[in-house]
Amino acid sequence: MLGKVSRILARREGFVISDDPDLIQVDVVHGFLTRESYWRPGVTREVVQRAMAASLCLGVYTDDEAMVGFARVVSDTVTYAWLDDVFIISAYRGQGLGDWLIGIALAHPDVADVAAIMLLTADAQQLYGRHGFQEFSGWESVMIRTKPEPTD
């Protein structure tokens, strides 16, 4: 099937990266985020699906169609983008797939000309640094509004 997909962005021995939303295996993405990520533990499947529907999503697939990686970009395609939910399934780490996925995501036509791309990471500064990301020193000017907890 993957050999016939027209939205393959990159191919290398044994793997492809595609932005075809029909190929994304929601169970794989949800399972990783809710059980293995430090940034979205316990996230519901509905939230994952809604976030994916409003984002550019890229998947890394083996030649036998197993989804082994994912990245999501939220952007207006001109001024700003947010790189999020980047992961490679643990059995496939150490092969440069995360580095490859980030490079392909940043070169995507919907992202390549964006003025600023932001992300948060607790443990992958070196990986993202290879792609031009730097620590942001202006945190005093960054503000956030979070959804209030429901009251009973």
Automatic annotation (TrEMBL):
PROSITE patterns: GNAT. Pfam families: Acetyltransf_7. InterPro entries: Acetyltransferase_Butenolide (IPR053144), Acyl_CoA_acyltransferase (IPR016181), GNAT_dom (IPR000182). Residues 18-148 form the N-acetyltransferase domain. This is GNAT family N-acetyltransferase.
